Amino acid sequence: MGSTVNILVEDYQSIRYTAFSELLPLLAVGTTPLLKVDKISQQIFTNNLTIDNTITFSTPFATFTSTASASFEVRSPSRIQVQFKEGSFQPPKIKSNISLPENVDIFGQNVNLSPVQQSLNPLQEVVANLAGVISGQAPLKVPIPGERSSSWLLVTYLDKDLRISRGDGGLFVLAKEGSPLLDQ
């Protein structure tokens, strides 16, 4: 079983492309002003046969991370059966220094945020204190019930930098953490 699991690559992976319809709205949200998708990634733990799919969003005020955790069973050298167990939402990481862009484009109109930034500057100390309080909170965990919690993943290509997989939800192209593909 060890060699069949190795095809999955245990290292942290960052998504470079997907045709998974449920991720597309999340990617679209990242194109809105002041909200950005920082990373969509997957980490496979072969020692306990689990997977964490993680997405991180950021705003000028905070960073938000959620994870869907699953267990998996090896079905062939390139295919696994996945059972999602729970989702978790980390407490937001409030940034101690709020820094808005000077201008944003909202529905084709350029909006100057300099006056807003100036009004936020006196609040920086309050924000820093709030960040300390929130960061110590436990994540919110939510079970993932129902028939949509079961899935499969078929690895169709794998090398030292790239993994291409298909699942019942679509196509996934992931680059290995540290790969030069992430710099492109």
What does this structure look like?
The radius of gyration is 19 Å and the shape is globular. The strands form 2 sheets. The chain has an 8-stranded antiparallel beta barrel. It has 4 helices and 12 strands. By secondary structure, the chain is an alpha+beta fold. 11% of the residues are buried. Its main location: plastid. It is found in: Plastid. Pfam families: PAP_fibrillin.
Strand content: over 45%
Count every helix, treating DSSP H or I runs of 4 or more residues as helices: 4
H/E series: HEHEEEEEEEHHEEEE
Q: Strand order of the main beta sheet, please? A: 1-2-3-4-5-10-11-12
Distance between the termini: 35 Å
CATH architecture of the largest domain: Beta Barrel
Classify the helix fraction into a percent range: 10-25%
CATH class of the largest domain: Mainly Beta
Low-confidence stretches: 1-7
Radius of gyration: 19 Å
Protein topology:
Elements lengths: L1 H5 L6 E6 L5 H6 L6 E10 L4 E9 L3 E13 L4 E11 L3 E2 L8 E4 L2 E4 L1 H7 L3 H12 L4 E4 L6 E9 L3 E6 L2 E7 L8
Antiparallel strand pairs: 1-2, 1-12, 2-3, 3-4, 4-5, 4-6, 5-9, 5-10, 7-8, 10-11, 11-12
